Task: inverse folding
């Protein structure tokens, strides 16, 4: 297990104990828990009890202010009890979710600690509370089964830096409060957090494509704790150990399920997960929490809150991904300790939706891979995540199960209710909750149209892609996961034009051995049979972090130490990769593609390394590939002016239009803010490609396009007009692109592109669309 991000919270200069409690006040953590228990158990009205909680906590933490905001009707957070702020503001001050620091804590469901709260951009001045004299603030969400019920806040006059332990104390009290707030006395205050039945569209990002309609199922990583404090730590320790043992057993059973038992990247993900469950540091932290008077399940919950707070500061995607795994495990362990079925989905609303056989779309803040596997696969049709991007572990497993996923959908859990109708448009990264009739109808039609289209594409599958005027265009597919391979047959691709070897590496902790790589490449050869396959050597770095090569502190990783640059500094890695490919080829032809080539000298050095490995294979007397071809990616603009020199060193070229566009326009391909601002169909970019086709033809070397543009029918038509005759794309694009190829004339497209390249267009997609319409090309 990796060492977790260091806790960078600075100990408060005025805090006196390691535990965040004031020795001056005489209240230690156990005493505080005892007093809170007494407050909660009393028969006093709810308001008196809330007042008791804020008073006790303010004293224990030496905070001048302690307040509770309760989330009520209309999604407003109402100041419901305070020690230190003006009492006249109680039940009058209300904040919207996301408004002010309190609203921010609620909206993000994350703790916040600020020594100088007033200079924070989210600070909202509330004159009626008299809070302007308090400089520092720490707050945590009050969560019950991941629903935000309110916010607990402390404030101090001085610029106090709250220690990590103090945040943990607040979180522990918030757990106690969550129990109280969900009781019947608060029903009047509490709304259901919803604004009626309004339909709502939420944007996110595509993690796995596809379109589905179903009923929302809210996935709660947490379950409701029945017991928070405990008298006998020894007994709780025993319960914890027994719970951990049971957890390991349930994981074994879950991972043996038939649909995930086979090899594949998801297997690595699951094994990593199992290692976290075995981590002794985690068990120790939970035992420490038990010593402070918590029950075993509350100790687990606290370890989770603690990890979440620490990891929210981590920028490393690998570490962030570990957090989802960890949350999956803690939720599972809490269920075991609470005597609930740990194999069932962790969903406290399941009963409302689970009845019947409707298709479900699961909505979660984040999720570990095992949690996804806990759902009934026959009904699970889609997944919406507030966090997680395409590289998330749960995404890799979702792809293995062929489920569309939209990630980074802010606020979806706050908006959705169990059983809500939901449309998930994975292709466009959007989610429609409670869609109106029109939206439903149009998606219903889209679903019908998709099935109809799928039938058309299937009927074209075995037809060669030839234009109306007889130009043959080779359509290949891009792959990077074993789960992509079955689509080779179903899509009718002529082969694999780009196999991204880094993708399987991304899921692993260790760099794979030659044997492991050989096994993987052999499976790809087996799946491709006689069809060609192009293996791209490791394209690590930039947007594809691989743990073994993470170079810390680079300001521009996309322009930094990555891909071929790493390989040339570590020739053994490239040699091992080539060795594995030669072994896997077992006498069949081998095509190797080098990524991110910037300068022809790099090609020369890479070739030398490859030749060395070929000689080694010859000397060892093994079976050599029937033919070995080496190609260069054209994705760094400098290569556009080195084609004649590069051609003497390679057999083919392949245009990485995704990166070429990013580097040509200095526009980060991962930036949400500028996405779509610069187009592959802009005339400067098209001219670049036109000149490249000319130079490759003069140098006598074939050239393919393997970036995303090749898979979009209008752009594929433009590429054909520019002279490309080989395109490699995602499998799902083969059908649509083939249909366009079959319906167009290459000569007419060439004329169109020639005219277009003479003028300036920021984006010529509309012109191609008009051409397709005029020439009756289906796109
Ligand atoms: C590209 O850059 O266009 C490409 C095909 O490679 P990747 O998307 O893997 O960087
Ligand atoms: Mg690239």
Result:
């Amino acid at each position: 297990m990796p060492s977790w991000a260091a806790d960078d919270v600075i100990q408060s200069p005025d805090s006196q104990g390691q535990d965040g409690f004031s020795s001056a006040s005489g209240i230690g953590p156990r005493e505080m828990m005892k007093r809170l228990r007494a407050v909660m158990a009393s028969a006093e009205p709810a308001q008196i009890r809330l007042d008791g909680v804020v008073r006790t906590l303010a004293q224990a933490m030496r905070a001048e202010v302690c307040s509770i905001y309760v989330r009520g009707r209309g999604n407003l957070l109402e100041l419901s009890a305070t020690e230190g702020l003006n009492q006249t503001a109680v039940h009058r001050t209300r904040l919207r979710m996301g408004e002010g620091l309190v609203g921010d804590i609620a909206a993000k469901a994350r703790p916040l600690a600020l020594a100088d709260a007033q200079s924070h951009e989210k600070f909202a001045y509330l004159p009626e509370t008299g809070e302007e004299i308090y400089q520092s603030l720490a707050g945590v969400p009050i969560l019950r089964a991941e629903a935000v019920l309110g916010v607990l806040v402390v404030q101090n006059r001085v610029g106090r830096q709250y220690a990590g332990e103090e945040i943990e104390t607040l979180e522990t009290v918030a757990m106690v409060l969550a129990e109280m707030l969900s009781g019947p006395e608060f029903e009047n205050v509490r709304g259901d957090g919803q604004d009626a039945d309004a339909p709502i569209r939420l944007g996110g990002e595509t993690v796995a494509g596809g379109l589905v309609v179903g009923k929302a199922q809210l996935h709660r990583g947490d379950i409701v704790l029945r017991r928070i404090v405990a008298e006998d730590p020894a007994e709780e320790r025993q319960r914890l150990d027994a719970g951990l043992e049971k957890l390991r057993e349930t994981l074994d059973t879950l991972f043996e399920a038939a649909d995930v038992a086979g090899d594949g990247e998801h297997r690595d993900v699951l094994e990593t997960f199992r290692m976290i469950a075995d981590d002794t540091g985690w068990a120790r932290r939970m035992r420490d929490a038990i010593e402070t008077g918590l029950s075993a399940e509350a100790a687990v919950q606290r370890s989770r809150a603690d990890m979440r707070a620490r990891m929210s500061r981590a920028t490393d995607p690998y570490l962030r991904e570990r957090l989802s795994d960890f949350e999956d495990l803690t939720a599972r362990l809490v269920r075991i300790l609470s005597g609930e079925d740990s194999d069932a989905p962790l969903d406290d609303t399941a009963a409302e939706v689970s009845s019947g056989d409707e298709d479900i779309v699961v909505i979660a803040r984040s999720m570990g891979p095992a949690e996804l596997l806990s759902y009934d696969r026959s009904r699970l049709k889609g997944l919406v995540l507030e966090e997680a991007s395409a590289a998330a572990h749960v995404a890799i497993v979702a792809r293995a199960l062929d489920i569309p996923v939209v990630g980074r959908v802010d606020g979806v859990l706050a908006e959705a209710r169990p059983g809500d109708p939901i449309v998930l448009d994975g292709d466009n990264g959007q989610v429609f909750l409670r869609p109106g009739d029109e939206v439903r109808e149009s998606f219903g039609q889209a679903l019908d149209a998709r099935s109809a289209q799928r039938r058309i594409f299937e009927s074209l599958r075995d037809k060669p892609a030839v234009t109306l005027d007889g130009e043959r265009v080779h359509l290949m597919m891009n792959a990077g996961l074993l789960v992509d391979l079955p689509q080779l047959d179903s899509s009718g691709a002529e082969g694999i034009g780009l196999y991204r070897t880094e993708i399987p590496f991304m899921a692993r902790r260790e760099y794979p051995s030659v044997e492991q790589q050989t096994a993987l490449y052999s499976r790809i050869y087996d799946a491709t049979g006689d069809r060609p396959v192009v293996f791209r050597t490791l394209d690590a770095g930039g947007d594809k972090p691989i743990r073994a090569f993470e170079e810390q502190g680079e300001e521009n990783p996309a322009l930094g130490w990555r891909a071929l640059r790493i390989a040339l500094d570590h020739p053994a890695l490239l040699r091992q990769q080539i060795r594995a490919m030669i072994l896997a080829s077992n006498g069949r032809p081998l095509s190797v593609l080098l990524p991110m080539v910037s300068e022809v000298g790099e090609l020369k050095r890479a070739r030398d390394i490859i030749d060395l490995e070929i000689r080694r294979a010859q000397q060892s007397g093994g079976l050599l590939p029937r033919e070995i071809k080496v190609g260069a990616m054209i994705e760094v603009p400098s290569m556009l002016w080195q084609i004649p020199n590069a051609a003497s060193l390679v057999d083919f070229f392949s245009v990485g239009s995704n990166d070429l566009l990013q580097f040509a326009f200095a526009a980060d391909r991962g930036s949400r803010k500028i996405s779509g601002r610069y187009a592959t169909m802009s005339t400067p970019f098209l001219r670049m490609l036109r000149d490249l086709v000319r130079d490759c033809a003069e140098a006598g070397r074939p050239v393919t396009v393997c970036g995303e543009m090749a898979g979009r029918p209008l752009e594929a038509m433009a590429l054909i007009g520019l002279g490309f005759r080989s395109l490699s794309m995602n499998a799902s694009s083969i059908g649509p692109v083939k249909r366009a190829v079959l319906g167009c004339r290459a000569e007419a497209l060439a004329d169109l592109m020639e005219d277009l390249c003479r003028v300036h267009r920021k984006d010529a997609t509309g012109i191609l669309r008009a051409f397709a319409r005029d020439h009756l090309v289906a796109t």
